[in-house]
Amino acid sequence: MRNRLILISILLCGCSAFSQTTTITGTIDDLTVNPVTSGKVVFTLKPSVDTTISGNARFSPGQPVTCYIQSNGTLLNAAQLGACTVVMNTALTPAGTSYRVDICPSFACSSSFNFYAINSTYSISTIVPTPTTGPAQNFADVFSNQNIGGNKTFTGATQLNGGFAVVNALGGLTGPGAFTSTTQESNLLSSLVNGMNPTNMVYYPAAGCCSTMDAVAGGIVVPPGSTVSTVSGIAGYVQNNCDTGSGHFCNGVGLYGWAKAAADGAYVWGQNVIVNDDGTNHSGMGFIGEEVDMGTNSTAPAEYNGFVLIGGNVPNGFAMPAGAFGFNLQGPFQANGSIAPWPYGFIFSPGATALAALVLYPTCELGTGACSSQNIQVTSETAGNVLLNGGFNLDSSGNLVLLPATGGYVTATGGLNTGGTASLTSGAGVPSTVQPTCTVGSVYSNTIASSLSTLLYVCYPANTWTAVNVP
Q: What pTM does this model have?
């Protein structure tokens, strides 16, 4: 058996010492039909698909024949001292063998074809031009660590399992997006952890809503028993070691966004966050729409603000729209369309402020002249659905000014007399005409009183207005 294997290997070796050869002529050309100037061509012997060898045997074609491409596109043998030759297939046993020819311009193998050496010469110029003449490329090895350089283009859906990081890279991912879906979440780049499916969160079949197109989507499902401190769908971290100076350079921003309206009827949101539950009545849950934790060890920072709302950032300037709100607290809408009001709008916790919970500066810019403070406005609605606006401010002389609605009064209630109630009322005219009845302890101010008429009246005794002389 061993002798049979040796004999078969010798027969298939194709030694040129006693075999006829084919000389490879012609040139290796590129797609522009210009000669390739470097590289190699490898001839590997292949058996016939119909070859049968009895017993235990292995086809052993010997070493491939390698010829090198010269600067004029022609081929020389491995020693580059003579013609490129291969043993004729007709001189080999068993019959029916062929050669697989691999063309490697610039030593990057880019094309191959089958070749039968049956004549004394063969012009390789007759084959289709090779597709590329570029240098060898680095191909990704998915089973080892490898750096991949240069610009790479991925078409279609690309999935990366495991960790993925982009380090020191400028540029980004580009794609056309999907803007006609009405039932799912679509994205260009996503990082979805532990089975997160964003479509299950954004799409409500019963309401026929909603769908999204995200440039970048991050999502994570937190499993029971987790011990990590924080779990984030998207996270941004900044450490600023740069002197910002006037604020125009190297501003550190953990999360940044810019929404620009660029068409008629376009609405934009700088930020839109949804916090809710899964519809199940769980116990002990906590809901916090937004929390900003701030702290510094600096004794005199140049600026320290918890929340700053600045209108503008429009290159050509603008006028603030009438009826614009800096902060608009709305009651959440329920499924039936009704409003579920907040029990409290603003809460200042005990000890939250040391000087003032609310500061209202003048209506004019500082240093531009006398003007009153900004108003605190309160609004009521009459039985006829008419809105009435009142309020108070501080005038430029330091007087606290109460501003009732047109035709209204200023009334103070609580603890100013033994009966437990009192009122300060202002009106246009004497109280006996404007407000005939009164309660003991009430005070009335005639807003149209002249220097020669009575300004103040006191309700004393019961149900009687008594004029008070004011110096």
A: 0.56
